[in-house]
Structure prediction request, 414 residues.
Amino acid sequence: MYHTIHHIRYSVKNVEKFSSFLINQLKFKKYATPKASKCPLQSKTTVLRHADVIFIIDELKEGAEPCCGNFFCHRNNNHPVNTACDVCLQTSQVDFILQRGKSVSSENIHRETDHIGDKDGIVSYAVIKSPVGNLQHTLIDLTKYGGAFLPGFEVDQAWKAEENPQVMTAVDHIAFALKLEHTDEVVQWYNHCLGFSRMIINIEEDFDDGFVVKEGTRGLRLKAVLGPQHLEEQKLKNKVPQVPKFVLCEALQLDKKSLMEDFFSMHQGEGVQHIAFSTNNIVDAISHYKASGLQCVLPPDAYYTENFSRNEIEDLNLTVETLKANNILLERNQGEAESGSDWCELNFGVSGLEEQKQHLKNTNWFIMQAFTNPVFEEKTLFFELIQRFQTISGFGAGNIGASWRAAQKDWCDK
Prediction:
């Protein structure tokens, strides 16, 4: 079994406003439009793309779905606020996953397996309900489909991948905001239904409790899961497999004065908290985006002096000034390995947590990250840019801790 993220679907109040933000500030391009039909909502759906990142954006509308004969044309998530509502997984195991979901509960199945096609072939699909708030996973099998995107859509004639700047490359990971003590249930669900496995976040992570960030009595617990992957792809040197990775975040205790509770209030429940995009050069990417007006979260003033020496940063051919100017956070590890040539020999999807931790500890690697401000009026979803060197694991947990402490303090002060 093998999954990739095919696209992410949004339900928003103002399609034009959100699309304009993505086009003007993150350099997405119009990729496809629904084909002409009698569907009254087709003109409200937009498909945007940047490199391998594809977003389908629907106008928020309550009611039954689908609204016409084409299931992919427009979806009604029936959620009252702006939201990322569907992470579509491409897989060849639609029926198997559906049966696994039914073995947990019949309520997991939002739509049974069906088929839709056009002149380019047939797509098998189904929809399974995630245990995370309003999130769904549309499952699609494209093994019998040769079209550029999906049935019912026309790819824009002006779209040419090589002519569009690829500041980002793909979806690196997606983070979910979870209610208190819900993480383990979600981990088990993704393992049982979709074949995901636990993935180490940080070398200081406790196998049972996850990676814990604390500030006084408040805190945050993080765990991660990784989708099943092709073993042979993992062995390709210096190639980072685009395997789905989900990070699960929950508060350590019920606290109305917490960022997590603020998310639940604004989003009206659990959901997608942030989406991270991989990039090959984060300095150039953030410089490019900030020139277009993108606003990024400013790290705490003391972050660069408390976490690193100037020599550590200069060893990476960077300067403190460059990182600060671009709001970039850095996490690195100087392991015992003489080189990083063997970094991809460990398959995180099948290795035990102790083996993962030792590999992460012994390997030379670094991660650089930057976080945007929230992109919706509800102050819920935000985006992240991440550059990895010799690791598919690690999510900058130390950086998240520093950012969370500063943001939590600022929120409480207000």
Observations:
- The longest helix spans residues 397-413.
